[in-house]
Amino acid sequence: MAKIAIVTDSNSGITQKQGEELGIFVLPMPFMINEVTFFEDISLSQEEFYSKLKSGADVVTSQPAPANVKKLWDSILINYDEIVHIPMSSGLSSSCESASLLAKDYGGKVQVVDNLRISVVQEQSVRDALQLIGAGKNAAQIKEILEADKYNCSIYIMLDTLYYLKKGGRITPAAAVLGTVLKIKPVLQIQGDKLDAFAKARTVKQGKNIMINAISLDMQNRFGGISDENVRLHIAHTERAAEAEQLKAELSGIFPGIAINADRLSLSVACHIGPGALAIACSKKLAVAKN
Amino acid sequence: MGNNTIDARLLSRMFLAGAKKLEASKEWINELNVFPVPDGDTGTNMTLTIMAAAKEVAAMEDADMLTICKAISSGSLRGARGNSGVILSQLFRGFTKVVRDHDEITIPILTDALDKAVETAYKAVMKPKEGTILTVSRGGAEKARALMEEGTEDMAYFLGEIIKYSEEVLSKTPEMLPVLKQAGVVDSGGQGLLEVLKGAYDIFLGKELDLTISEARPAITSQSLDAKADMDIKFGYCTEFIIMLTRNFNIKQEMDYKAYLESIGDSIVVVTDDDVVKVHVHTNDPGLAIQKSLKFGALSNIKIDNMRLEHQETLFKKTPNAPAAAPGKPVTAKPAAELPRKEVGFIAVSAGAGINEIFTGLGVDCLIEGGQTMNPSTEDMMNAISCVNADHVFILPNNKNIILAANQAKMLVKDKNVIVLPTKTVPQGITAVINYVADQGIEENTQNMNEEIAKVKTGQVTYAVRDTNIEDKEIKQGDYMGIGDAGILSVGRDVAEVTYQMIADIASDANELISIYYGEDIAEADAEKLKQKVAVNFPSHDVELQFGGQPIYYYIVSVE
Questions:
Q1: Which residues on neighbouring strands pair with residue B547, listed in sequence order?
Q2: Which of B542, B546, B547, B560 to mutate to test the interface with A (most CBs of A within 10 A)?
Q3: Is ipTM > 0.90 here?
Q4: Tens digit of each residue's pLDDT (9 = 90 or more) over B503-517
């Protein structure tokens, strides 16, 4: 049986350390901060990142340099037969497109998965891929299964401020005027390839309710029902660890029996939405991943 | 026995006399308002409505019946303000629909016309209420039919009996509406209608009356406007410019910058958009604003106007023929034609610099100044709609006395889909816009916004303009009153205490947000004190304080 390696990028929220534990490879995303390049989780910690972001530094995300990607793949292929490469959503970055181009030179040994995932649901794809390897699938089959499953997830994020979204030009000018006087907490959604406005809340409680209702509807209508059989819940945050834990407790009460993991949101998302954000995501469990 | 028919010339003179009679009784009708609040007075609204038509009628010489009817109908429809004004305009619309096809109005024609008038007016109101102008008009129409069927041929007797009977119905309105009885008044709209009928009847009887219609708006309006305009100019220079950022301008710096502008002026708008900041401030020292701004980058599009001088100019230019610079005038950045057509636009009726800024900040395209001090007319609404270059236009009337005029504008506009969201208060309007979601369809949004509006409880604090007794509360002129969605909640001599009591009355554990908008006559420090008190006593709520800058209402509070 072919020996298969999994590669993802740090957008998945998987740290270098967690990557080692899972037995996968995590490509660090580069950041340009005041025109100096840093690598997530290598030369840039979460704390450093937020302190720079809040000081008003110019933070720009970038895609991994093709040379670095190639170097990583080449080193992996010394010990492995195939690679499943799971980059961040092609709708949000061109990482996927460049990786796909590079992969052409590897004669099918490297399978780049274009499944529009980001953050906690990208992490879920990595875990799904590990299960698929365990089930004896090859790299090309894993790519096909994960891509067929791409829309079976959704993410809702409540922001503390619109400042960073405005700064990064990620929302339309009309929406950007929002909240100049009133304290408004926008709730955004990520469905595959797009970051979109979903609703607006006046209070944290209201924002949480909006997200919980939306997730609940998605589970019922899109993911086959609210049960641990069908779905997995995720909570992610930017500098809101305590609130995330509290939300986790609330969700466990509302959706008993469903596994929930809480994690920090990856920095490439954080730099667009800023500190103070709270997110709930849901992904449908792969049929093969059931056991 | 005299004339038993009414021709075009007589009808036009009767209409003008009715308008004059209503105008003369305006102040007295205003006093019949049940709530002793200083706003949206029935007499003023009905007078402005009929005067809009009277001006058109007066300008005609030897016009035929059809032309006069058109003038009465379209003039009053467009000029309609307030609920009573809208109903009056619908009465005229129905009436003229029947008589316009005849050169001479006979008793049977008049009877049909009155029926049509009543039918049309009832249709215009979603939930017709008895004990109002509607009941009075229906009484008159029913009497007319009875007289006609009895074979009455004497027009003077016919008209006289209708008026007599309408007066009887009016005198019974307190029995139909308990609020009227408690306040010891008859319905003001019904009284207004009766004044119109009486004026018309005087002419029919051959009284010599002065029928010149002055072009200026009624004195009370322009006076209050001028007083307001003078009072508003605390800071003399309207200063606008754009900063092209070359230095950092993060949230903290933006807040500090705004705080600085607040220390030297008011009416501040700072909009940051990528690397430019648009600034608008009224200040007595534009130099300070410019110096401060230069620290962040280069300035462009600098415009400084001396508002005191310009104000003098507008006052000077105001001839008897020119309408006063009115509330109700749409305020928008650019004429619609210069803006690209978009799918959805918003219009809000708003009063106060702070409230205006909130609506603009939420993406409202066009504001109509008005609400408390003045109900905008149907025509004001139509002008605003024409300013918004969008396929679908949402209107937020933000006052229960403006919703009908907005609905009337919706009927008259053909080239755009106008949706009137029945917001009765400013906070309801704010909640409506916040809940608009760009991706969703018009119907889904309309439904969603309507649901959210219903969740907003509002309280507003103003003063009593006269002594009265309402809902068993003894109110003295000058008292502060906290008015909720269903009536008066608190009365007293201390504005903060009255506001606090009102909030305590409407807040409940099911709610989570209390928003307080303080008006132009309240000092920020006092508002802050009230906010602290509310925050301490309602710990499960978020309490937000905003500058509203609204006139008349010291505080507007919402609980949701």
A1: B518
A2: B542
A3: no
A4: 999 998 888 899 999
